[in-house]
Amino acid sequence: MNRGENAGHFNKLYYSFSAAAGLLILGYAGCMMYMTGLTGRVIWLSILFICIFAVLCVLLIWGLRSKLAGIVDTLDEIIEGAIRGEERVTGYSETSISSLENKLIRYIDLSFAHEQKMEAEKNTIKQLISDISHQTKTPLSNITLYSQLLAEQAGFEGETQQWVEQISIQANKLDWLIQSLIKMSRLETGIITIHPSYSPVIGTITEAMSQAYKQAEQKGIDVTIDCASSIYAYHDQKWTGEALFNILDNAVKYSEPGSRIRISVATYELFVRVDIADSGMGIAECELTHIFKRFYRCQRTAGFEGVGIGLFLTREIISAQGGYIKVSSKLEQGATFSIFLLADS
């Protein structure tokens, strides 16, 4: 509540008190005149009483108002000084305001210490994530390289060849999982900062689609994009592209070969809506509120690859830009994911 709101609130109290005092004076004077008669002496005494009582009320109201205004100003100075770390306003006198000032300074000091602690923990986590990323990159790269070298060697047949291929596949899965966990941790701790800008949506969609196109082509899935080049939205192209890819990857993964995925974009006054509709297995209604949770996987997807990170990352990325995401689906009728991006900053 600012000073203007405080003044308005106190003025209402003053006006209410003044009205009550006025009614009391008029009621008292009326009763006196009614009981004693309208004699000149009674009238003059009543007028004198009204004037004296009115003056006392005005002085009382003015004194209370000045006192309250002084307290509010003192509290405002205390808060401003405590925030800037200036010397105390009331000194160390044993008054209620001095006690309040002391508690406020202690609270600000504790808040500052807590903020420093959080920043130190954030830096520690940042260093830990960097170490994990660095330490796992080389072993995984070596495993992938050696598996490729083994696959190129002559003489491997049957099960041996399959084992070599599985080593490469599982190494790639492990690398993807580690990178996803690192991204999730960086987003949650604020290490990764998203920088949205007013840019065309079609470029972000085509970039995301280029990453999922190979898998869609292998399954014979037809992908259509309906988006005008003139449509712009306030978003981070890199991270929004990754969010769109996570949805497209699921759409391709859970759709039958030869099916269709449609990407359409519509503009509203405040948002730009990107719909990704597939004709896959769909999502049960009871699971719609859970699919964006970390590590959650639908019961019907147990036989497919994945760990339940993609949609969680998607929601975090979109939310960090001021947008939101929702989904509508029915079993065996596909699902439609709708991403809403800010139309302007």
UniProtKB/TrEMBL annotation:
**SMART domains documented for this protein:** HATPase_c, HisKA
Matching Pfam families? HATPase_c, HisKA
List the EC numbers from the record: 2.7.13.3
List where in the cell it is found: Cell membrane
Query: Which of the seven top EC classes does this enzyme belong to?
Result: transferase
Alphabetical keyword list: ATP-binding, Cell membrane, Kinase, Membrane, Nucleotide-binding, Phosphoprotein, Transferase, Transmembrane, Transmembrane helix, Two-component regulatory system
Keyword Transmembrane helix listed? The answer is yes
* CDD domains reported for this sequence: HATPase, HisKA
What residue stretches are annotated with the Histidine kinase domain? Answer: 131-345
Q: Which Gene3D superfamilies match?
A: 1.10.287.130, Histidine kinase-like ATPase, C-terminal domain
Reactions catalysed according to its record? ATP + protein L-histidine = ADP + protein N-phospho-L-histidine
Superkingdom of source:
Bacteria
Gene Ontology CC: one annotated term: plasma membrane
Q: Which GO terms describe its molecular function?
A: ATP binding; phosphorelay sensor kinase activity
Q: How does it sit in the membrane?
A: Multi-pass membrane protein
Q: Which residues cross the membrane?
A: 12-36, 42-62
Concerning SUPFAM superfamilies, the annotation shows:
ATPase domain of HSP90 chaperone/DNA topoisomerase II/histidine kinase (SSF55874), Homodimeric domain of signal transducing histidine kinase (SSF47384)
PROSITE patterns per record: HIS_KIN
Q: Which PANTHER family match?
A: SENSOR HISTIDINE KINASE CPXA (PTHR45528)
Protein name per Swiss-Prot or TrEMBL:
histidine kinase
Protein source organism:
Paenibacillus lutimineralis
